[in-house]
Structures are given as structure tokens and as C-alpha cells.
Design a protein that fits this description.
- 25% of the residues lie in helices and 27% in strands.
- The chain is α+β, with helices and mostly antiparallel strands.
- It has one domain (31-219): Gamma-glutamyl cyclotransferase-like (Hypothetical upf0131 protein ytfp), CATH 3.10.490.
- The protein has a five-stranded antiparallel β-sheet with strand order 1-3-2-4-5. A two-stranded antiparallel sheet has the order 6-7.
- Mean pLDDT is 81; it is low at 1-39 and 234-239.
Length: 239
């Protein structure tokens, strides 16, 4: 008997992945790089986005609220070879991702009510041109005066199975990618410079980032910054 799944709710209830026993056979495995919350995130109220890289100073959308945040279990790492924004296949660069272990301090943005689907669509287009990240939700702590508040936030963690995962690369190889990478959004070294300045502005110490920046300075010419990169503040979105 075939079901006429005209209703999205019925389609979800009778999907092979959720109820394989209804259809017979083994469960369908999830796609290797598919986002985990294509249907979940737009229904989250409120919807928070955790920023650890360029989203900190250039979110590309106007949030309802901005808070310092702590994410445990993943850490910031220059572990993604860039083939689009800060490099190409011919001239790859290096950018940040969230990798396993440790913790990461960054910013959390609360999306305005009613803009959840639009913001997620924008972020997916920006962050996932090659599907090197896994979109997920992760527990975070919103830091501020008084006790920390806990919630879940959308974040983009590196997919270690992807060809652009750079975790095993030695420091000198990472330095070379930073010094030579140029892509759609500019040079990889400028991205690193923006990151260093933004974290300094937020009072965040990142030992791994500091070590990479020091090695790049020893091996090449550091960009001359005219104005410091500033973390995003409400009413001052830089597109």
C-alpha cells in the first residue's frame, strides 16, 4: 500500500529514515555532509547562532541580541583548506573551523523572530559552498553579568571526512597556505589578521591562533592594519 504524503507532517511521520520498520528493510543512513537541522532550526525559538570566525565581525544579518558565549567540546582551529572565500583549488588558503575537543569562546547572535529561515538560508549559502562544515546545534553558555545562561545554538563544525579538512597538516604547511591563499573574499592572511584583531577586542586568548600568527609573522610580511577589526555591535552590521 502506498501512502499519499501530501502533508509535510505525514511525510515526516512515515519517512523511511524515521520508521524503517514500517516500510521494511534497514534504516537509511544520513547523507555524509547533510545539515542536521534543515527542519529543526527554523522551529527553534529563540534561534541562536554561535560565531567563532568571520561571523564575529561580519555576521551579514542584524541580530536581535549579541552576547559573549562559551561552547564546550569543540575548539577554534585553522583546520579548513579554503577553495572559495580565502583561496582557490589552484591557490588554496586556510580558514577556521570548529574541531573536536577543548572549548571555544566567541559570540552568540539571537536571530530576530520571523527571520529564522532567511538567516539560516543566508548562512548555509555563505558557509557551505563546498560542504566542508557540518551544520549542527550545540549547547552554549551565554556569558555576562550574573550566572551564565545555557541554550543551544546553530554552529558550523568541520567535517573531518571532507577533503578540505586540514587537521593533520604541520605548522609550516598551514603557514604556507595562509601566506599564499587568495579567494573570493580576499587573502587568507587578511582573514587571520581580522581574527587576531577581533579576538583581541573581545579579550579572548587563543593559544593555537597566537602560535599560527607568530609563525606567519616570522615567515612573511604581516598586513598593515589601518583600523582594528571590531566585533559586531548591534546597528553596525558590516556586509
Amino acid at each position: 500500500m502506498e501512502l499519499d504524503c501530501r502533508s509535510s507532517l505525514l511525510c515526516m511521520l512515515f519517512s523511511k529514515r524515521l520508521f524503517p520498520f514500517f516500510w521494511g528493510g534497514a534504516p537509511e543512513p544520513p547523507p555524509a555532509c547533510a545539515p542536521e537541522l534543515t527542519t529543526i532550526a527554523p522551529m527553534m525559538r529563540p534561534l541562536w547562532v554561535f560565531a567563532y570566525g568571520s561571523l564575529m565581525w561580519q555576521p551579514g544579518f542584524e541580530p536581535a541580541e549579541r552576547r559573549p558565549a562559551l561552547l564546550r567540546g569543540l575548539h577554534r582551529s585553522f583546520c579548513v583548506v579554503s577553495h572559495v572565500h580565502r583561496g582557490t583549488r589552484e591557490r588554496p588558503g586556510l580558514v577556521a573551523g570548529l574541531d573536536r575537543g577543548g572549548a571555544c569562546r566567541g559570540l552568540a547572535f539571537r536571530v530576530r523572530d520571523g527571520e529564522e529561515a532567511a538567516v539560516l538560508g543566508y548562512l548555509r549559502g555563505r558557509e557551505q559552498p563546498t560542504m566542508v562544515y557540518r551544520e549542527t546545534t550545540w549547547p552554549i553558555e551565554l556569558v555576562g553579568e550574573g550566572a551564565a545562561e545555557r541554550c543551544r545554538a546553530v554552529c558550523f563544525a568541520v567535517d573531518r571526512r571532507h577533503e578540505q579538512y586540514a587537521g593533520p597538516l604541520a605548522l609550516d604547511q598551514r603557514v604556507r597556505l595562509v601566506l599564499t591563499g587568495v579567494g573570493r573574499s580576499g587573502r587568507s592572511i587578511d582573514y587571520l589578521d581580522e581574527m587576531v584583531a577581533c579576538l583581541a577586542g573581545l579579550g579572548i586568548d587563543d593559544a593555537g591562533l597566537a602560535a599560527l600568527a607568530a609563525a606567519v609573522r616570522r615567515n612573511g610580511e604581516w598586513p598593515a592594519r589601518q583600523t582594528p577589526a571590531a566585533p559586531h555591535k548591534p546597528g553596525a552590521v558590516r556586509r
